[in-house]
Amino acid sequence: MLGGYDMNQFGVASQGKLIEKKNVSEILTAGHGSPFIAQVSMAKPPSSTRHCSTASSIAARVLPGLHHLPARARRRDNMSADQAKMVRDARGMPEFVFNPRKGETSQEAFDLKGNPSLDRDWWRTKYSTTGEEYSFGVAHWAITEGRFRKHVKSVKEEDVAKLIPFDDILLFITQDDVVHRRVFEPKHRSFVPNFGCYIKAEEHGKMKYYAVSRQMVLFAVERRKAWRMLQGKAGVANKDYGAQKAFLAKIDKGELAFADAKARTRELFTAELAAVK
Question: Are residues 270 and 160 part of one domain?
């Protein structure tokens, strides 16, 4: 899976060509007549079966249909559904249905139901042991996948004070910063230090902390943009996007000192979020 760049690369090799993930199912929703497209999760077999039947029905009436059901290979049966749900909820592979029979605008045709926290960047959920609310994103999913093992490093709780919270660093970065390679410039607000930020995850009733690679941060930025694009097509207003734009505008215009923004990131962003209508 691509995101930011090839996640199979690591270290110096990862600073080459930056590429966004090419999603065939999303591409086919544009400029291809009237296809029925369903990208659904193995975590919901009844829904998958229903959409597959709809696609077959529409195809029988001349219109093309595609049913994309992402799966993780080489998994035990009892784990496949769990991982499928996790990658969906983390925005790694969101669910959507594009049904041209619903109307002639993308807002009518697109349906994002099935994805949690529809109007937010990430799934807002809670740790079961503490009740603390947090954003579940691709980095949380990645720690459960062996293929990403080079991109996450377990760290002690006392060491995270030296690192940046993952959610906070994402607020300073746009996909345009990635494309123009500003994320490699130490003096730019979007600079991403390799293994310089962390996430907190709950495992078997205990809290664990992980430092994540630069690639993982850019993976999240790319997946966030892809999700925002889907929201826009479906007519869903993203509260986090509006708040982030306002937050970054103040920094880039010099209305908010970068040092102050870094020191009070969560406080300032929460205020911008509250102002979003």
Answer: yes
The boundaries of the domain holding residue 216 are: 116-277
Do 178 and 79 share a structural domain? Answer: no
Which pLDDT tens digit goes with each residue over 199-230?
Answer: 999 999 999 999 999 999 999 999 999 999 99
- Please check whether residue 30 lies inside any domain of the structure: yes
CA pair distance 6, 21, nearest whole angstrom: 9
d(CA 45, CA 113): 15
Q: Which of 236, 262, 225, 228 is nearest to 247 (CA)?
A: 262
If asked whether residues 163 and 245 sit together in one domain, one would say: yes
Asked whether residue 121 is assigned to any structural domain, the reply reads: yes
Return the exposure string of 117-148: e unless at least 16 CB atoms fall within 10 Å of the residue's CB, then b.
beebbbbeeeeeeeeeebbbbbbbbbbbbeeb
Q: Are 5 and 192 in contact (CB under 8 A)?
A: no
How many whole angstroms separate alpha carbon 78 and alpha carbon 76? 6
Question: Is position 122 within any domain?
Answer: yes
Q: How many domains does the chain have?
A: 2
Q: Which two tokens stand for residue 144?
A: 């459960």
The confidence score (pLDDT) of residue 45 equals 59
Do 41 and 171 belong to one domain?
Answer: no
Per DSSP (E only), the strands in 22-108 are 36-39, 65-68, 96-98
| Cα-based torsion angle of the residue sequence 179, 183, 185, 188 in order, rounded to the nearest 10 degrees | 100
Q: Are residues 241 and 124 in the same domain?
A: yes
Residues β-bridged to residue 208? 201
DSSP assigned state of 174: -
Please give the structure tokens belonging to residue 217: 């941060």
> 29-33, 44-48, 174-178, 210-214: lowest mean pLDDT where?
44-48
